Amino acid sequence: MSLNEAVKNLSRREALLVGVAATAAACSSDPMPTPTGDAAADAPGADVTGNDMPPPQDAAPDAAPPPDAAPPPDAAPPPDAAPPPDAAPPPDAAPPPAAAPPPDAAPPPDAAPPPDAAPMCPPAGATRLGAVSDFPVGSWRNVKAASVVVGRDARGLFAYTSVCTHNGCTVPAPSAGAGSSCPCHGSTYNSEGMVTGGPAARSLDNYRVVVCGTDVYLQMSMVVPVGTRTAV
Ligand code: FES
């Protein structure tokens, strides 16, 4: 058969098929059957043999379990909270002002001093040397009863021991304006009893002279410096 003949045969068959279909549609008034339970077999994709379709596989394989979540890193411990600054100590309380001292009490008026008691004259224990007239100015006199030399110059009366400081010999009264010499070992003293040569090493002690009225007394309990005078 040639190609043209084959085409013609095909067109003829299609025309027959169309005609058959139209006839069937016209003759049938039944609605289209509703697919039943078996319709699933008619569903597209159903096995034309009527066998049930194998159950679909799970669309996706089970998801792999997530990897164990990494444990969170240990939370860094919070930095030690800075200790609160020491509270500033309260300022020292200002000391209370010193109480003002009470005004000085007015001192009591000075009590009137008692009148000077009249000095005892002659003093207790004093030794009488003689009358003032016995000791003229510019003279030296040895009073053996008291072991003293009494002199008098323009300033007054004075007295010193006549016992030599070297070995106890009696030193004579000096001449006016001169010294004296110990007869025992030659120690020398001036007109006031100061040692001026040995062997004596110490001057002759001067004692206090007291004039009571017209009399002259010696107080041997009181040694006075060389040069002391009792005015007359
Ligand atoms: S006792 Fe006077 S000098 Fe010796």
What proportion of the residues is helical, as a percent range? 10-25%
Terminal CA distance reads 206 Å
Content of β-strand: 15-25%
Sequence stretches where pLDDT stays below 50 over 5 or more residues: 26-61, 63-67
The major pleated sheet works out as:
6 strands, antiparallel
Please tally the helical runs, counting DSSP H or I stretches of 4 or more residues: 2
Shape annotation: elongated
Structural class: alpha+beta
What is the radius of gyration computed over CA atoms, rounded to a whole number of angstroms?
Answer: 81 Å
What does this 3D model show about the protein?
The chain is α+β, with helices and mostly antiparallel strands and 232 residues long. 12% of the residues lie in helices and 20% in strands. The chain has helices spanning 3-27, 39-42, and strands at residues 127-131, 139-143, 148-153, 156-161, 180-181, 188-189, 195-197, 206-212, 215-224. The chain has a six-stranded antiparallel sheet with strand order 1-9-8-4-3-2, with no helix packed on it. Strand 2 and strand 3 form a beta hairpin. The protein is elongated and about 215 Å long. Residues 26-61 and 63-67 have low confidence and may be disordered. Residues 164, 166-167, 169, 182, 184-187, 199-200 line the site of FE2/S2 (inorganic) cluster.
